[in-house]
Amino acid sequence: MDKNPEPGRDEILQAADRIRPHIHRTPVLTCSAIDHIAGASIFFKCENLQKAGAFKSRGAVNAVFSYDPYDIKQGVATHSSGNHAAALSRAAQLKHIPAYIVMPENSSKVKIAAVKTYGGKITFCVPTLEAREQKLNEVLIETNAFEIHPYNNYSIIAGQATAALELIEDQPDLDLIVAPVGGGGLLSGTALSAHYFSPATKVFAAEPSGADDAYQSFYQKKFMPSINPDTIADGLRTSLGSLTFPIIRRLVSDIITVNDQATIEAMKLVWERMKIIIEPSSAVALAMVIRHKHRFAGQKIGIILSGGNVDLMHLPWM
Amino acid sequence: MDKNPEPGRDEILQAADRIRPHIHRTPVLTCSAIDHIAGASIFFKCENLQKAGAFKSRGAVNAVFSYDPYDIKQGVATHSSGNHAAALSRAAQLKHIPAYIVMPENSSKVKIAAVKTYGGKITFCVPTLEAREQKLNEVLIETNAFEIHPYNNYSIIAGQATAALELIEDQPDLDLIVAPVGGGGLLSGTALSAHYFSPATKVFAAEPSGADDAYQSFYQKKFMPSINPDTIADGLRTSLGSLTFPIIRRLVSDIITVNDQATIEAMKLVWERMKIIIEPSSAVALAMVIRHKHRFAGQKIGIILSGGNVDLMHLPWM
After folding, report:
1. What is the ipTM of this complex?
2. Among B43, B275, B279, which would you mutate to test the A interface (most chain A Cβ atoms within 10 Å of its Cβ)?
């Protein structure tokens, strides 16, 4: 577990300085056709165009580059089926230390290939949370590597916060920012950046209705785990963490769910009209804004497109 | 035919000012994975992210907005199966004048839908150049509209030149810029901008080997028409024009051909690694640079990604 305090203004600005040489400053794009459909002005922060194809590169680089080199000299480790695995492998490669990744054996070939590209050492396990945690413990004992959790870690959260920080720098007068929520790393970082750098900007979360643990936790005011999540948005099936949930409760205005059909339609709309590749988890936020357009009519909305790692041989509309 | 002189420095800068409110300033993106493959530093000017999905919006807006309103008050017209048709329709819509588009009856549904989105009035014809020109003449007589040729028009060329102008502004120390060549509007505009704004930057063209009329014309030093072109790069099947060829002869360093297999591989590489959607015509330039990497090793290369209009139901690798 992380010994750092919850990131404040200084920690987020330090993270931005620390990661700058190792990440892309991603563009903020607009699309008049989508604005017309949504009845609002949308500014898309394109983290799908980020290194390793997702915002996860921000947190992973910030974590690996902020820890004491002595603590991580044996390497870093995590369990992840997705973008954090590739991002952490890449960050470790930049520091010339090993990355040990526990992946469920049913992980997509594309994600496995991405981890290998960045030199991550993969251990496969049965695809249950218990098996993942147990296998990771074995790996940690064997390698003496340092665990870097995908989201329940303040260095990760401070890194993810820099996406919203850049969006706010580029577009200072947003009425709201919408981020998708899975474990809550991106969402809590976004909420912290809005709080510190653009306090008039509200933060909303979008979540798949088939994996609505954050919605349930938010409204029942207690942690509700994600049980048997069923959604195409594979990045958003995880449960909130003990560090992310309190920030979300305190600083997020609302969490709104959306079904997978709307998400697939929004994903295809972005591909067709914006000519950029986003994964389903990225499309959830736009799907929510379009479905609830009466609520956001005429507003200036920032949407964080979280990632673009898609198997191009298997598209959801084919 | 155009009565203007060949665009000089002033005409290109005026075009940039004229079109600025109506187009995107597209981002210049980099990708370390592709740099590694190519053995060079590549700066991608993303005209696939342009309005209407292609650089053609630049020339179309510049033409429609630079002509005397009296001359075009009955509307504008062209024959095109592709991106110029949509771009001209959009430019005319901005000016509240009609756009009459002659399209071959075998045009892709996606391109037909794009023209309709922007209010273009379509007349279909048999898919031969003769039929297209004859049908366009009928339309011009009937409507009294003003013809705006897709590339053999100096206002169009000046507009297309602004893509390279922006690339040079963002990245002033390029060794070379590579553009694809079909009719030569983008290539001649790119060559003019490099000549006036970055004279140390060379301009290379990439052309499909199955439609190598520009290559043949360049080396035989006389106009050679495109006869039975056979390439997946549907935007590059046209012949050079009487206005574009002289500029290309004078200012382009070389034209290099590449086969469709390499183009499809380069297209998939950009989708996978950069998470942006480009059409085959856009991939020809990168394919050429990768195939001829020994020639460009270690150099700083600008590549103009010309467009991103693809039928997402029919991808060339599926």
Report:
1. 0.91
2. B275
pTM (predicted TM-score): 0.94
Instruction: Look at B312 and A27 and tell me if their CB atoms are within 8 Å.
Output: no
Q: What is the reported pLDDT for A3? A: 64
Ordered by start, the domain boundaries in chain A are: 9-54+155-305, 57-147
Mean pLDDT by 10 residues, chain B (318 residues): 82 98 98 97 98 97 95 95 93 97 89 93 91 95 96 97 98 98 97 98 98 96 92 92 97 98 98 97 98 97 97 89
The closest CB to that of A275, out of B272, B276, B317, belongs to B276
Q: Residue B215's pLDDT is what?
A: 97
Nearest Cα residue in chain A from B308: A275
Q: Which fold has domain A9-54+155-305?
A: Rossmann fold (3.40.50)
Question: pLDDT per residue over A224-281, tens digit each?
Answer: 998 889 999 988 999 999 999 999 999 999 999 999 999 999 999 999 999 999 999 9
DSSP letter for each residue of chain B: ---SPPP-HHHHHHHHHHHGGGS----EE--HHHHHHHTSEEEEEEGGGSGGGBTHHHHHHHHHHHS-TTTTTT-EEEE-SSHHHHHHHHHHHHTT--EEEEEETT--HHHHHHHHHTT-EEEEE-SSHHHHHHHHHHHHHHH-PEE--SSSSHHHHHHHHHHHHHHHHH-TT-SEEEEE-SSSHHHHHHHHHHHHH-TTSEEEEEEEGGG-HHHHHHHHTS-----S---S-GGG-SPP-TTHHHHHHHH--EEEEE-HHHHHHHHHHHHHHH-B---HHHHHHHHHHHHTHHHHTT-EEEEEE-B----TT--TT-
Q: Say which of B268, B275, B315 has its CB closest to residue A53.
A: B275
The CATH fold of domain B10-54+155-305:
Rossmann fold (3.40.50)
Domains A9-54+155-305 and A57-147 share a fold: yes
pLDDT (0 to 100) of residue B57: 98
- CATH number of the A57-147 domain: 3.40.50.1100
Q: Which of B274, B278, B313 sits opposite A318 (nearest CB)?
A: B313
CA angle A5, A239, A281 (to 5 degrees): 105
Check residue B1 and give its pLDDT.
Answer: 47
